[in-house]
């Protein structure tokens, strides 16, 4: 399983309705399923395949009335409704519902270890988190100690929330791969990104790596373990909403700085800077500001078409590119164009865009990418499962440029990326192949 998801949890008035609105705000993190679990004397769960607004139609939310809830949006390349979140698991006489963003790197090792002890109902690695926690909790009778034991045993990426016994436990893995925010106001809130909490007028901060929160009538939190942090750089490059703040760094500002750094490393002459919307816009603005080359909207996006990267099949990705973008010929015709995007994964989307611009009359197209080449798979929760799918892992930059039909191609350097993000404790494994040691110590 390779997942990119969004999680939410809250103890507040009308928590079920707030879960719905928060999941809408997190929809960019997953478009294949959505679900909400609430506590009303017992766990009550509703989930379905599709977008949030498609799953929760009619009076479904009214049937989930509660002041305590967890929610999830999911993207996966595999699995059906039984593997959508929230998952309900049972062990040692107790039951919980869970939501999870990430991937467990030692899942197969742990699954083999516990096959004789646990009754698995799915093939999802997230199920193991709930089962191990309930086992530890039955032994210790202490939520924090049970979570500490889980941290010591489970490797990989996991921002998660458990709902059980009328309380919520929320935790972020010791390396802090995936983002997780905590908000306080008229209650207690948690979400994968703080931008999903601002509508509730709450004060937000990051959940620290290795930190756990237990929310019942009040809230208690502890940092249970400390490791060298490894925040996913791809959250800043692509996944997170531009208005989110992760580790004190505004995602939009980081992307603008990526464009500025890219311009500093470049020496091309052109007439206009345009972006692949919306993923390249912030970097294109930064590039234009730094280079002095004017920025214009050369591609218009159909707002009703979702992200091409997170469509499950290549056929769907290819077809939706044609529906998604339309060139503005007045901006493009007879111009030397700098085309900015945040990344190139397979190269197929960029190839179609370059072809589209040339058909619209572009004189030259110089593709500039506001991140380094993605050469290695991610094992911590992003859908990049094999090196074969990554064009930069088997082609040189010059060859990629020819493959996509560009007059020239340049990427941001790793050094420039780190400077733009403004954080040193980043996971750069998909760029340099250096994986965080702790995540693979098993």
- How much beta, percentage-wise? 15-25%
Mean model confidence by pLDDT: 93
Helix proportion: 25-40%
Coarse shape: elongated
The count of DSSP E runs of length 2 or more, i.e. the number of strands, is 23
Uncertain residue ranges: none
Question: Which structural class should the secondary elements be placed in?
Answer: alpha+beta
Provide the gyration radius in Å: 22 Å
Task: State the strand order across the main sheet.
Answer: 3-2-4-1-10-9-11
Largest sheet, in brief, is: 7 strands, antiparallel
Structure overview:
This protein has 442 residues and is α+β, with helices and mostly antiparallel strands. It contains 14 helices and 23 strands. It has helices at 15-25, 52-55, 107-114, 125-140, 143-153, 233-239, 251-264, 281-291, 314-324, 329-332, 348-359, 397-404, 414-421, 429-432; strands spanning 6-11, 33-39, 43-49, 68-74, 87-91, 94-101, 159-164, 167-172, 181-184, 188-191, 203-206, 211-215, 219-223, 231-232, 245-246, 249-250, 272-275, 299-301, 325-327, 336-341, 364-369, 408-411, 426-427. The strands form six sheets. It has a seven-stranded antiparallel beta sheet. Helix 4 crosses helix 5 (143-153). It is elongated, with a radius of gyration of 22 Å.
């Amino acid at each position: 399983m390779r997942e990119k998801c969004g999680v939410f949890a809250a103890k507040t008035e009308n928590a079920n309705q707030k879960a719905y609105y928060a999941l809408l705000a997190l929809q960019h993190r997953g478009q294949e399923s959505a679900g909400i679990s609430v506590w009303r004397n017992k766990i009550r769960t509703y989930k379905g395949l599709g977008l949030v607004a498609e799953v929760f139609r009619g009076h479904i939310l009214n049937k989930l009335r509660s002041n305590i809830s967890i929610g999830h949006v999911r993207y996966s390349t595999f699995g059906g409704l039984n593997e959508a979140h929230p998952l309900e698991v049972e062990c040692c006489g107790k039951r919980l519902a869970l939501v999870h963003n990430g991937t467990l790197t030692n899942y197969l090792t742990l699954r083999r270890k516990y096959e004789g002890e646990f009754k698995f109902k799915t093939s999802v690695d997230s199920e193991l988190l709930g089962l191990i926690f309930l086992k530890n909790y039955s032994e210790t009778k202490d939520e924090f100690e049970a979570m500490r034991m889980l941290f010591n045993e489970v490797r990989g990426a996991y921002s998660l929330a458990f709902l059980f016994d009328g309380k919520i436990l929320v935790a972020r893995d010791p390396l802090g791969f995936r983002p997780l925010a905590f908000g306080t106001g008229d209650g207690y809130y948690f979400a994968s990104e703080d931008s999903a909490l601002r509508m509730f007028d709450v004060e937000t901060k990051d959940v620290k790596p290795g930190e756990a929160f237990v929310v019942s009538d009040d809230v208690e939190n502890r940092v249970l373990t400390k490791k060298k942090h490894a925040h996913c750089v791809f959250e800043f490059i692509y996944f997170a909403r531009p208005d989110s703040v992760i580790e004190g760094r505004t995602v939009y500002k980081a992307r603008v700085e990526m464009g500025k750094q890219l311009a500093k490393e470049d020496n091309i002459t052109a007439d206009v800077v345009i972006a692949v919307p919306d993923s390249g816009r912030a970097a294109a603005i930064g590039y234009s500001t730094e280079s002095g080359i004017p920025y214009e909207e050369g591609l218009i996006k159909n707002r009703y078409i979702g992200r091409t990267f997170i469509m499950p099949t290549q056929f769907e990705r290819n077809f939706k590119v044609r529906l998604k973008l339309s060139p503005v010929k007045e901006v493009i015709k007879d111009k030397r164009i700098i085309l900015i995007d945040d990344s190139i994964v397979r190269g197929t989307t960029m190839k179609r865009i370059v072809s589209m611009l040339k058909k619209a009359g572009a004189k030259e197209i110089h593709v500039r990418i506001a991140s380094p080449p993605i050469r290695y798979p991610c094992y911590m929760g992003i859908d990049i499962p094999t090196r074969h799918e990554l064009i930069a892992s088997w082609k040189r930059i010059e060859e990629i440029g020819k493959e996509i039909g560009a007059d020239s191609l340049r990427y941001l350097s790793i050094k420039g990326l780190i400077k733009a993000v403004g954080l040193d404790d980043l996971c750069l494994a998909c760029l340099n192949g250096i994986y965080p040691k702790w995540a693979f110590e098993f």
